[in-house]
Design goal:
Layout lengths: L2 E6 L3 H13 L2 E6 L5 H8 L3 E5 L7 H10 L8 E5 L4 H10 L3 E4 L4 H16 L1
Parallel strand pairs: 1-2, 1-3, 3-4, 4-5
Amino acid sequence: MGKSVLLIEDEPNIIEAISFLLERDGWTVRIHSDGTDAVEIVRRVGPDVVILDVMLPGRSGFDILKDLRSEASTKALPILMLTARGQLKDRDLADRYGVSQFMTKPFSNAEMLATVRALAAEERA
């Protein structure tokens, strides 16, 4: 079974780093950089895991998370939120909306890989 990640991120350096790391581990990585139609892209792509940035052009990652959790088809989808602002209120809001994991930038490669693997394993269980 293939492992796929949809990376919803607009920062080129982060896109490149995460894509390289996960592709090297055997993941198929699809990239989307706009919050406006991100929910539709998640529905269309059907990834095993979503990595979602908080600050995106067009729409907040929090709004996207809230919408994904309100739909039956994506309610249990593993979602890792990334933010440069690791403030407690951001974590609380993400938790309230049903995030699977929350990670602040910068992150270590080992932490990213371990988290994505764990999310995919939970989803399969």
